What does this fold into?
Amino acid sequence: MSKFTESSYRKILKVAKNQYIFNGSQTVGKKNAIWRHDVDVSPIRALKMAQIEKEYDLKCVYHILLSSIHYNILEPETSKIFSQISSMGHEMGIHFDFDSNINKLDILEKIKFEKKILQTMLNIKVESISFHNFTLNKENIVYSKRILGLRNLASNHIKRNFDYISDSNGFWNDISLIDFLEKNYKNIHVLTHPVWWSKEDLLPIQRYEQVLKDRLLDNLISYLKIMQTEGRLTKIAKRIGISKNLLKKYNINIKNYD
Ligand SMILES: [Zn+2]
It folds into this structure.
């Protein structure tokens, strides 16, 4: 059984590296692997994958969903994570969601807007684009090779020249990625979502749950840390219902809690 763990990811990368050239989505000749991650849910898991890929010196593609309900590129922590991923040499791009266009702006205007935000926040060149909920939005997908200068990974060109596999929903549909690599295709387009890859071997829904729990805890701790400055937490801990045990659990030290 093919697992969605970090150690199994390392094994997969070893096999893939022996066969393919990893150069983001900028491809030449044969044997290219466009190794893409759509970060729908978890920048933290994306960072972990980027670090593992860096161990093997691979250039992969990270697409950021600006309209994610789970993270926000304007958050300092999130933009820091994506800057780190970019500085490892990975390619950054936009993961565009047609449904986020609630005011029915011109699609190209909306993409241009997201591109501007990403480039400003990360101080990088955005190079490629893909689309969120691809099948739901099939009618809207623009199939041209480039959109606003960005390489379009949903283009007919990519579809024609690259064999494709995706880990959608946290499992492999027909064959596993490792079996897919054995097919020895000319060019491959591998899509993974960082939320589906975890340290331990878990069921897909448990992986998703774990990511959300971690995020919740991070947010709560960051609130407590802010309250901790200037002694505010000492004054209000009891009144807002924070017990000594809770502080211990979150590793927060405050003075004079009686
Ligand atoms: Zn997506």
Remarks:
- The domain at 6-196 is CATH 3.20.20.370 (TIM Barrel).
- The mean pLDDT is 93.
- The chain has nine helices and eight strands.
- The pocket of zinc ion is lined by residues 38, 40, 95, 132 (CB under 6 Å).
